[in-house]
Amino acid sequence: MSSFDVIIVGGGAAGFYGAIHIAEADRGLKVAILEKGRQVLTKVKVSGGGRCNVTHAQFEPLALSKNYPRGEKELLGPFHTHSSEDTVAFFEERGIPLKTEQDGRMFPNTDSSRTIVDFLLKEARRLGIALLRNTAVVDIAPIEKDKTDGQGGWKVVSDKKSYRAKKILLSTGGNPKIWRLLARLGHAIVDPVPSLFTFNIDDPRIRGIQGVSTNALVEVLWKKTMAKEITVPLRSQQEKSSTLVAEGPLLITHWGMSGPAILKLSAWGAKVLNEYQYKFTIRVNWLPDYQKEGLLSELMQIKEVEARKTILRTQALEIPRRLWINLVTAAGITRETKWASVTRKQLDNLASQLTQSVFPVHGKSTFKEEFVTAGGVDLKEINFKTFESKIHPNLYFAGEIIDVDAITGGFNFQNAWTGAYIAARAIAGK
Asked: How far from the centroid of its chain's Cα atoms is residue 392's Cα?
């Protein structure tokens, strides 16, 4: 049986970050990463469209924690220890400068995830960390302390051989097999459901205009019976209530709607939308600065100023032209109708379409390859000062294996970096 001081199960962002910090803190420790597949750091490779959204430029711990539908309260303390600012410093001090985009997302200056992947692999090699690929873990069991040598720790069984370690860090992400092993060890596992998904919508108002993107306010409209049936708390960044609402860029796609506004809703509503089998209704305000009555008044003024022009050809409001044409048509206004001849009723319909468009959602699609789950090891069973199990000593967690998930924008990676760093310091006795 091969022996290590520390075994890390899972060769992703959290696994490598934790291994590097353990090895740096104590160069005498024998550290190994066990990865079930041939490839490592796969989510790092695909994140941000292949550019790697390393973290987010939100450096204040309290504000940073507000981006986690599950884990907000628990991560506040850890973010004071290792926040996105510390993550940036880690990479930049090692020659990997990051840049901040307008929306706060942070990427390597090279705009290539390969930069991050190659760096983490190089650091692991430099520090002598063993990387065992194609090594799927099939069992984990605590070893009782031997009376003769006083050794205890953990037995980690793979599909190839068995290993022994004094301490283990589990960073396997949303892996059902590992969750089942942990359940057998007495840990409560919150049932996982998808988070960060797009909405499937088939509606003539958005048909044929895929690729159009605009800022919008999106709200989930619950059925009358839903309020009584909701069993999980809902919240958005705007308010803590049963309302699920988000504002941001909305992208029209072949299958419906995507973009940050939709992804925020999918994260905050991950569990309740799963309960309703992804069949619900949303209301979209395509002009978030307006309410219906105010916009109707604006349209009446445009009617006076642009009387001779056709409505379809007028670009009087900040809205993509193809979307404008579809919404004007949906309001019952023909291609030839001029502002001079449009009725108040038609303008009222147009104001409704622009500020109160209702769309039925009939399913979801995974957001690219960046699949995120809500669920995992129950947060009550983790000591967030060390990320150690409260049930089994010398068993640590980092990343998506625990019941923490975030909205899109680099926040899920930050959870991985923070948990891995704190667990690493605890494992190395620092």
From this structure: 28
* pLDDT at residue 201 tops 80: yes
Token pair listed for 349? 């319909």
Q: pTM for the whole thing? A: 0.90
Closest CA to 216 of 84, 359, 85: 359
- Structural domain harbouring 144: 2-193+370-427
- Residue 227's contacts (CB-CB under 8 Å, 6 or more residues apart) are 242
Dist. CA 324–CA 318, nearest whole Å: 9
Joined together, the tokens standing for residue 76 give 């506040």
The reply to whether 336 and 403 lie within a common domain is: no
Q: Say whether both 216 and 77 belong to one domain.
A: no
- In a 10 Å sphere around its CB, with 0-12 CB exposed, 13-18 middle and 19+ buried, how is residue 230 labelled? middle
Domain count, the chain: 2
Compute how many other C-beta atoms are within 10 angstroms of the C-beta atom of residue 105.
Answer: 20
Model pLDDT for residues 216-254, shown as the tens digit of each residue:
999 999 865 444 344 444 444 433 345 799 999 999 999
Distance between CA atoms of residues 18 and 26, nearest Å: 12
Taking only the tens place, the pLDDT of each residue in 346-370 is 999 999 999 999 999 999 998 655 5
Q: Which two tokens mark 184?
A: 């057998």
Beta-carbon contacts of residue 295 (< 8 Å; ≥ 6 apart): 287, 351, 354, 355
